[in-house]
Design goal:
Helix content: 40-55%
Number of strands: 6
Mean pLDDT: 92
Radius of gyration: 19 Å
Number of domains: 1
Bound molecules: adenosine-5'-triphosphate, magnesium ion
CATH class: Alpha Beta
Length: 296
């Protein structure tokens, strides 16, 4: 069964796009899975990391982005959606036979405008309260996103920091959400906010009443420097939120992996000293997500 994994945090610059791409490469390479990365952010960083500027602009000009997909298909019955997907991309070679593949539904700078247009269009059709229209738009987007499950084993959704309809639809659709964060003095607040959104509760008390084993998200400490203050903060956060055992240190190899490079390479060449961390992250995330799916 297709698994939908969202990578989300309302805080910017915590590593969402980097980790989405790393997990996509790992699931294709280590897990031999057919992976789709869905870029929901108007900054399009994950798209640029996976195909570079030229191929992304070409896809934009051809009308093959997530914004075009929503706009073209919003009112139509489902048709073949593969025209919008760039197949077998990324700068990691996953083996010619029996290997996994990474594909991309490219992001678009027009995604926010398209969402507003869809909202206005729906509002003008019927006398409905704005909240009801918002729920309708979000629900339709979720169904359109779910459609890609037919062609892939795993769909990774790189969410923007803001609360667009597409981001909310991704959180609705996700079987599991990875929440990367940098342990600093605002991370408690950021984790609380995103956790309440994912668990659909309104107060900290309601959130606290949900056992960790039943929560749909796990938090990933990223950009660790390894000092004592950081360890104390993580212990504190672990009282309120399920944290993954895997942590990602601040590494040049992770920062470099952000840059697009035309040459296909092995996972060892791409991720260097980050690879052991990525293996651990892959095994833990997909172990946790599978366990949750079974118990659901
Ligand atoms: N563990 C790490 N070590 C070194 N650099 C990192 C690490 N994690 C992320 N970075 C760097 O931090 C920057 C921000 O990462 P990224 O763009 O993935 O964050 P984001 O949460 O997707 O940001 P946004 O909210 O803007 O979408 C990038 O330059 C990336 O290379
Ligand atoms: Mg990002």
């Amino acid at each position: 069964m297709t698994q939908f994994l969202a990578v989300s945090n309302r805080k910017g610059g915590v590593g969402k796009s980097t980790i989405s791409v790393m997990l996509a490469h790992a699931a294709a390479s280590l897990g031999k899975r057919q992976v789709l990365l869905m870029d929901l952010d108007t900054q399009c960083n994950a798209s640029l990391m996976l195909v570079g500027g030229e191929a992304w602009e070409k896809a934009s000009r051809a009308g093959h982005t997530i914004a075009d997909y929503f706009s073209d298909r919003f009112e139509k019955v489902a048709e073949d959606e593969s025209a919008y997907v760039l197949k077998n991309i990324g700068d990691v070679s996953h083996g010619r036979f029996f290997g996994g593949r990474v594909s991309l539904l490219p992001g678009s700078q027009r995604l926010e405008d398209i969402q507003s247009e869809l909202f206005v269009m729906q509002s003008s059709k019927r006398e409905m309260h704005a909240d009801a229209v918002a729920i309708q738009v979000r629900g339709r987007m979720k169904r359109l996103m779910k459609h890609f499950g037919m062609d892939f084993d795993l769909v990774i959704m790189d969410c923007p920091p803001g609360l667009s309809f597409a981001a909310l639809a991704a959180l609705d659709l996700a079987d599991h959400v990875v929440v990367p964060f940098r342990p600093d003095f605002v991370s408690q607040f950021a984790l609380d906010r995103v956790a309440m959104l994912i668990e659909r509760v309104e107060t900290g008390e309601q959130l606290a009443s949900i056992p960790f084993g039943q929560r749909r998200y796990s938090c990933l400490p990223n950009y660790l420097k390894g000092d004592g203050a950081e360890r104390m903060l993580l212990e504190q956060l672990a009282l309120d939120h399920p944290l993954l055992k895997t942590t990602l240190p601040a590494l040049d190899s992770i920062a470099r992996a952000f840059d697009w490079d035309e040459t296909k390479k092995s996972m060892e060449q791409k991720y260097a000293d980050a690879l052991s961390h990525l293996r651990a992250l892959h095994d833990e995330v997909f172990g946790v997500a599978q366990l949750r799916a079974k118990s659901a």
